[in-house]
Specification:
The structure holds 2 protein chains of 2 kinds. In chain A, a hairpin with a 2-residue loop joins strand 1 (13-14) and strand 2. In chain A, strands 1-2 form a two-stranded antiparallel sheet. The longest helix of chain A has 55 residues, at 19-73. Chain A is mainly alpha-helical. Chain A is rod-shaped. Chain A has helices spanning 2-11, 19-73, 76-86, 103-111; strands at 13-14, 17-18. The N and C termini of chain B lie far apart (83 Å). Chain B is built from 22 helices and 20 strands. Chain B is α+β, with helices and mostly antiparallel strands. The chains are: A mainly alpha, B alpha+beta.
């Protein structure tokens, strides 16, 4: 029964065309339209990707520019100039630095009378 | 040879099967005719042709599917494209940018596409204030596409682009930028517009910088924080004393890494094309100086290491030393017998000359050659220049060289040789490349014993606590050093009032010999005395305070632990010569 139905597809004709040929034509057209539709969609996606890609490249260039600007702004000599000019800062005197371990030593020195000033160093070549 | 024998043995059965099927197909027509079934022959041929076409279409279909699904287009490939002449970023040891390629844009204008010249001119002038009106007008009046203005940042380019002006377009132009301007200019160097390095690290590491373009940065040994402090103090000292030039270098003597290098006066590598050539000379590597008394470090290291003398050996400094055509004097005329340690702390020329003569020319040649003093300092920097040395070491030359005369060499050579004396006795070239964590420094070669190195560290410390280097002392950092004040030889004779004043410092002088230890050299070319130096322009008054200030600022950055010692706060301690020597342990 099924076999005869299947074989009729190959033999039966509609307006002179075999059913199998019409089916094949339909599948062919559907495939062509499908491929066209998907290619169009994919093209749009590709354009979007290319657009994002170009934005990324632009942003990367901007990031590099900003990094250069940061490097310029963080230039030690610039920061020193600004801090001394506007804030009156100067390099920290190492005598004012102490680790936690050294605190007892610092405390003991505070209790002692100040040491006499050292005579000027004898300076020769 | 048949086709069957030309295929590998493993394919033989398949080949035989295929040949048989082909043969069977070819003879199908004959068989069909022989059996009287001609129609079978046609069907078989049609089937065969269909099969071939089907196979072809299936192959094409599979290929098309593969191409559609796995096109292999790498969207990241765009990032990997490297323009000709591109260079990698140059960074300091902590990753701070020192030099980088930056993309800018040039604006081009094609007047043939411009419908409204006046409107275009006004629009461009409104967003590009740097544009030269005459040039723009000339381009608009012309008949070909021309460059109008360059150096546009992406933001500026976007502003022009948004005007949607016909005839206006852009081209990328890459330029090397030095965001720190003058900071570290001499060690960083600069490159030309063709992307080739011309000076400093840009030249020294040229091949590496070009090979690494688009990959990753190239790290220098330089520490920007150290460089900033060094350059600031050197420039301040140079300006204060009105020096013609100056030199500063900071080295980790354990690894040989150069952490800071500065030459005064400096320049901005962004304007290398228009900078004063005299300011572009890296005096650290490219200028030979007569070093003066800092050289006594080498003489004493030689004498002690060779066993010719020890710190207590008495040397006669009672009378000037007459040798050939010259008489060697001391600046202070104590006229006394001095132990070697006092020869060092008093900076006695007579004592040093006597020690040099005791060692002799042959020994001096061997030791000084091993310290690298008779050759250009081995360095990546091509600026490193050769010393000026007498070809024959006569007694006169030996005596003079013992206290740093009769030889001219670069501060880089002095730093390289002195690093060997202060790091336990191993000579290794100084480097501008960063050593990665855990990376061993270059092997080097032993030039003095470890015990000599320890003695020299102690002597240099003594010279700061009790000798001529007192103004370089920084409480808590165990600074050692040696002053130098060489009279400049001008017109064939020495000028007493024109000095090259220097201070060679090391800190901390204590701790194991293979620990991190830092060498700082400050040199000032022809400094002038100021009221606060009481008329002196010698190394102890000019270079030593600058070296002290550099150490004061960089020691905490380098992780040197501060330990306050009695000699830092109280009066000078008495000298015990026994403490000056000692085996490492």
């Amino acid at each position: 029964m099924i076999l005869s139905g299947v074989s009729s597809v190959f033999t039966q004709r509609v307006r002179g065309f075999r059913v199998i040929d019409l089916l094949a034509l339909f599948v062919l057209l559907a495939l062509a339209l499908g491929v066209y539709a998907f290619k169009t969609l994919a093209g749009r996606e590709s354009a979007d990707i290319a657009d994002v890609q170009s934005q990324i490249v632009m942003e990367q260039k901007r990031v590099r520019l900003l990094r250069a600007e940061i490097a310029h702004l963080e230039d030690p000599s610039r920061i020193e100039r600004l801090s001394s000019q506007y804030l009156g800062f100067k390099p920290v005197d190492p005598k004012k630095e102490a680790s936690v371990d050294a605190l007892p030593q610092v405390a003991s020195q505070v209790d002692k009378p100040a040491a006499p000033a050292a005579p000027p160093a004898e300076v020769k070549p | 040879m048949t086709p069957a024998t030309s295929v590998p043995n493993i394919l033989l059965p398949a080949w035989r099967w295929f040949s048989a099927r082909l043969w069977w197909m070819e003879h199908a027509f004959e068989r069909a005719r022989a059996s009287g079934k001609v129609e079978d022959d046609a069907r078989i041929r049609i089937f065969f042709v269909m099969a071939l076409f089907s196979a072809g279409f299936v192959t094409l279909g599979l290929g098309a599917t593969k191409a559609a699904l796995f096109s292999g287009h790498d969207f990241n490939s765009e990032f990997a494209t490297v323009e000709p002449g591109a260079r990698a970023d140059l960074v300091d040891r902590n990753g701070q940018i020192l030099a980088m390629d930056l993309v800018h844009y040039g604006v081009y204008l094609d007047p043939r596409d411009v419908s409204d010249p006046k409107g275009t001119e006004a629009a461009l002038m409104s967003v590009l204030p740097g544009i030269v009106p005459a040039r723009l007008e000339k381009t608009l009046a012309g008949d070909r596409r021309e460059y109008v203005v360059g150096g546009l940042t992406p933001e500026m380019r976007a502003k022009v682009h948004d005007l949607a002006l016909p005839g206006v377009d852009f081209e990328e132009e890459s330029a090397r930028a030095y965001p720190l301007a003058n900071t570290g200019a001499h060690i960083i160097g600069f490159s030309g517009k063709d992307g080739h390095g011309l000076a400093g690290a840009e030249k020294a590491l040229d091949a590496e910088l070009r090979a690494n373009a688009g990959k990753g940065p190239v790290a220098l040994s330089l520490d920007l924080r150290v460089q900033g402090a060094l350059q600031d103090e050197l420039n301040a000292a140079g300006a204060k004393f009105g020096a013609l030039g100056g030199v500063g270098i900071v080295v980790n003597v354990r690894t040989g890494e150069i952490l800071g290098m500065s030459s005064y006066p400096d320049f901005d590598p962004n304007d290398a094309g228009t900078a004063d050539p005299a300011k572009m000379i890296n005096h650290v590597a490219a200028t030979d100086y007569e070093p003066g008394s800092v050289f006594k470090v080498f003489t004493l290291a030689m004498g002690i290491d060779a066993g010719v003398a020890n710190v207590n050996t008495m040397l006669d400094a009672r009378t000037p030393l007459a040798l050939g055509g010259q008489t060697i004097h001391d600046y202070d005329k104590d006229n006394s017998m001095l132990p070697l340690w006092e020869v060092f702390t008093h900076s006695s020329n007579i004592g040093s000359a006597r020690l040099g003569l005791m060692c002799g020319a042959e020994r001096m040649d061997r030791y000084f050659r091993s310290f690298g003093l008779f050759n250009a300092a081995p360095s990546e920097l091509i600026e490193s220049s050769r010393p000026i040395v007498n070809s024959k070491l006569t007694d006169n030359v030996v005596a003079s060289m013992s206290f740093g005369h009769a030889i001219s060499l670069t501060p880089l050579s002095i730093a390289t040789g002195m690093s060997a004396i202060l790091n336990g006795g191993v000579y290794r070239p100084l480097t501008i490349r960063k050593l990665e964590a855990g990376q061993a420094p270059a092997a080097g070669r032993r030039v003095i014993q470890a015990s000599t190195s320890r003695t020299m560290l102690n002597l240099m410390r003594l010279n700061v606590t009790n000798g001529t280097g007192g103004k370089a002392n920084v409480a808590g950092y165990r600074v050692g050093g040696k002053t130098g004040s060489a009279e400049k030889a001008i017109g064939g004779h020495y000028e007493r009032n024109k000095l090259v004043s220097s201070f060679a410092a090391v800190f901390p002088t204590d701790g194991p010999l293979d620990a991190d230890r830092y060498f700082v050299l400050i040199m000032l070319d022809q400094p002038n005395a100021t009221p606060d130096t009481f008329g002196f322009a010698t190394g102890g008054w000019t270079a030593a305070p600058a070296a002290g200030r550099v150490i004061e600022r960089i020691a905490p950055l380098l992780g040197v632990k501060r330990v306050v010692l009695p000699q830092d706060t109280g009066p000078k301690p008495p000298v015990d010569p026994k403490t000056l020597t000692g085996e490492e342990g």
